[in-house]
Design brief:
44% of the residues lie in helices and 21% in strands.
Length: 290
C-alpha cells in the first residue's frame, strides 16, 4: 500500500518532493517506493525530469483509478466517523460550574454537532460512571480518580473577589496586609491556593484566618452575599464581575492546585461523542482565555 500511496501522490502533484511533503516522508522514500512499484509492475510509470515527473501514457489510467479508489475509501471512512457522532451523550456536571461555563455555550455545541443529543445532568453528587449513570462527567479536583480516564480541561487562575457593598469601604487594589485582616473564604482542600496568592503578592506574615466551605459554590456565595472575600477563578466569576455582582480586589492571580477535568470510564476506545465534546469545550475555553 505504501507504494500505491506514494505513486498516487506523486502522480497528483507531478512531483516527488510535494508527494513527500503530503505524506510526511522524505523525497528519497517516495522515489524508492515508486521505483519498487515500477519493478513489481514491470514498466515505467514516470518520465523523470529536472523539477517534475510526468506520467507515462500507460500510467495515466492507473493513476486515475487509484485516485478514485482512494477518494471512495476516504468518503467511506468519513461516513463511518460521522455515524459515530450521532445519538445521546449524557454528561454529569455540578450546577455551579455548568450554569456559568457550559450552559451559555450550549447553542454553539448543538450547532457544531447537530446529530449529538447532549443530555446534561446537573448534580452536586459524584455519580458512579462505572455503573453507567452517565457517559462522562466534569469534575473539579487534582485529577486523581482511579479507574477513570482523566482529561484536563483548563488551568484555573484564582484571585480575590468580593461584593461591591463589601468592597466599597476598601481601597482597591487592596494590599496583601489589609486583605489578610478581612474575612476570607476558601473551598475545601484549597487553602494552599490562598497561601500561594499571598506569597506571590509578597506577604510573608502568618496564615490569615479563613472559613473553609465544602465546595467552590459556597465559597463564592460567601463573597456574593457581602460577607467577605473569596479566592475565585477569573473565568468562573467573569459574568458575575461583568454584571456588577462581584469586584476583583487585586488583579494578581495564581494557578490553582485544582482545576476542572472531563472524566469517563477507562477504555482503549473512547466514545467519539465524548472526545468531540472534550475537544470542542477545550477550544471554547481557549478562546475565552485568549
Amino acid at each position: 500500500m505504501k507504494q500505491l500511496f506514494s505513486f498516487e501522490a506523486a502522480a497528483r502533484h507531478q512531483s516527488f518532493k510535494k508527494a513527500a511533503e503530503e505524506l510526511h516522508v522524505t523525497h528519497a522514500a517516495i522515489s524508492h517506493q515508486v521505483r519498487a512499484l515500477e519493478e513489481q509492475l514491470g514498466r515505467q510509470l514516470f518520465h523523470r525530469k529536472t523539477r517534475q515527473v510526468v506520467l507515462t501514457e500507460a500510467a495515466e489510467p492507473f493513476a486515475k483509478r487509484l485516485s478514485e479508489a482512494f477518494g471512495a475509501i476516504a468518503e467511506a471512512v468519513e461516513a463511518m466517523e460521522d455515524k459515530q457522532l450521532e445519538g445521546r451523550l449524557t454528561l454529569s456536571v455540578a450546577p455551579f460550574y455548568g450554569n456559568r461555563m457550559l450552559m451559555p455555550r450550549l447553542a454553539r455545541f448543538r450547532a457544531a454537532f447537530p446529530q449529538i443529543e447532549l443530555d446534561i445532568q446537573m448534580t452536586g453528587t459524584v455519580i458512579d460512571l462505572q455503573a453507567g449513570d452517565a457517559d462522562a462527567a466534569m469534575r473539579y479536583g487534582t485529577g486523581d480518580w482511579p479507574g477513570l480516564t482523566v482529561l484536563r480541561l483548563s488551568e484555573d487562575r484564582v484571585g480575590p473577589v468580593a461584593a461591591p457593598r463589601f468592597a466599597e469601604r476598601l481601597s482597591i487594589p487592596v494590599t496583601p496586609e489589609a486583605l489578610a485582616d478581612l474575612p476570607l473564604a476558601i473551598n475545601q482542600g484549597a487553602r494552599q491556593d490562598w497561601r500561594d496568592w499571598f506569597t506571590a503578592a509578597g506577604h510573608d506574615g502568618p496564615d490569615p484566618a479563613m472559613t473553609e466551605y465544602s465546595d467552590r459554590a459556597r465559597a463564592v456565595d460567601f463573597a456574593l452575599s457581602g460577607n467577605g472575600v473569596a479566592l475565585a477563578d477569573v473565568y468562573l466569576t467573569e459574568q458575575d464581575e461583568a454584571d456588577g455582582h462581584l469586584v476583583r480586589l487585586d488583579p494578581l492571580t495564581v494557578p490553582s492546585r485544582k482545576t476542572m477535568h472531563l472524566v469517563f470510564p477507562r477504555t482503549d476506545y473512547p466514545d467519539p461523542k465524548v472526545m468531540a465534546f472534550y475537544n470542542w469545550f477545550r477550544e471554547e475555553l481557549g478562546a475565552q482565555s485568549s
